[in-house]
Design brief:
single chain, about 250 residues, alpha/beta, Arc Repressor Mutant, subunit A, Rossmann fold, 2 domains, seven-stranded parallel β-sheet, three-stranded antiparallel β-sheet, about 40% helix, WH-like_DNA-bd_sf, repressor, transcription
């Protein structure tokens, strides 16, 4: 396989799966790990992928957004750890907004309070999962449903959020940097996330390593809008320093 063919495969597969690991690429292409690393360096210099610990992700600013199924299959163990740690921030809350996305879905999967809690969500999968659980009163936002994520968007969703006062917003992101804050590739999703942050007394960001140091195209929150972040231990400290300087509490698992 020629280098240009390897590069095309890496880019297309990263966009389909959301993330690729170096050993996986080497095994699929039948080349040495050192060759894969050189290929990834070339693609990163061209602005086509972003290197992360042990692999690569597509550059979100290109406007690419993977499906919920593809994102859910990427780093499920890390997302489960993040979700478990995030529960510590919800011990005393009476009302929660839960975002769309795979990490938010992992959080919802572990949410089993022993007291009444109101859950507001833009995610159909989250709503259907939580509606049958004891102690949870689930409200799903109205609006157009996006096929990639099964999340509700547009003015119906933001109008509903504008009428609510919630204790905590649990949100995900496609990108998080000190310069541009929290970003995602879809303006309708960004509007719902922004409305949820405004409607909530506190905001908790849950995101895996791949989201830090990456910018997408639409900003939905500043770092100072956050109260806490739960992420992986592998996130470089340089990416977390802008959060720490603003007093954002950070938990790494």
């Amino acid at each position: 396989m020629y280098p240009v063919e390897r590069h095309r495969w890496i880019i297309e597969t990263a966009r389909a799966q959301g993330r690729l690991e170096v050993p996986e690429i080497a095994g699929q292409l039948g080349v040495a790990v050192e060759t894969v690393r050189r290929d990834l360096n070339v693609l990163e210099r061209r602005g086509l992928i972003r290197r992360v610990h042990g692999g690569a992700i597509p550059v979100e600013k290109l406007g690419f957004e993977s499906t919920l199924l593809a994102r859910g299959s990427s780093h499920p163990e890390a997302k489960a750890r993040i979700a478990q740690a995030a529960l510590e921030y919800t011990d005393e809350v009476e009302s929660i907004f839960i975002d769309e996305g795979s990490t938010a879905a992992a959080y919802a999967a572990q949410l089993r309070p022993n007291r009444p809690v109101l859950v507001v969500t833009s995610s159909l999968p989250v709503a259907s999962q939580l509606a049958v659980r004891p102690h949870l009163d689930v409200v799903i936002l109205g609006g157009r449903v996006r096929p990639n994520t099964l999340g509700a968007v547009d003015h119906w969703a933001t109008d509903m959020l504008s009428r609510l006062v919630l204790d905590l917003a649990v949100v995900g992101t496609n990108g998080a940097t000190g310069k541009h804050g929290l970003t995602c590739p879809d303006s309708s999703v960004a509007a719902v996330k922004s409305a949820a942050v405004r409607a909530s007394r506190r905001t908790l960001l849950i995101a895996d390593e791949s989201k830090f140091g990456v910018d997408s195209s639409i900003k939905f929150a500043d770092l100072h809008d956050l109260d806490a972040v739960v992420t992986e231990k592998t996130v470089p400290e340089s990416h977390l320093q802008p959060f720490r300087r603003l007093g954002v509490q950070i938990t790494q698992v």
